Amino acid sequence: MYNSRKKPQDEMVEEVTSIWSCTNDECKGWMRDNFSFASEPTCPQCKSPMVKSEKKLTVLVNTSPNQSKD
Ligand SMILES: [Zn+2]
Question: How far is the CA of 51 from the centre of ligand 1 (A)?
Fold first, then answer.
């Protein structure tokens, strides 16, 4: 199929991102590893310990430095 997106500079791509994942199987809690934790964080939802993991996140890649055209 021909790709007819109007704004090819805005692409949704999947990126493997470092995250903290809740160790509680019944909890879906996770957070991005964007912060500098002094130690391992606890889940904000259930207070369980969290472990480092990776998650595929869909991110918007904006290759256009200036979006003022719209
Ligand atoms: Zn949790």
Answer: 11
The per-residue DSSP string of 2-63 comes to ----S-TTEEEEEEEEEEEEES-TT---EEES-S--SS--B-TTT--BEEEEEEEEEEEEE-
- Gap between the Cα atoms of 63 and 12, Å rounded: 11
Torsion, Cα 44 46 40 13, to 10 degrees, reads: -60
Evaluate if pTM is beyond 0.85: no
Task: Quote the ligand 1 centre to 42 CA distance (angstroms).
Answer: 8
Quote the ligand 1 centre to 39 CA distance (angstroms).
17
- List, for residues 41-50, the tens digit of each pLDDT value: 899 999 999 9
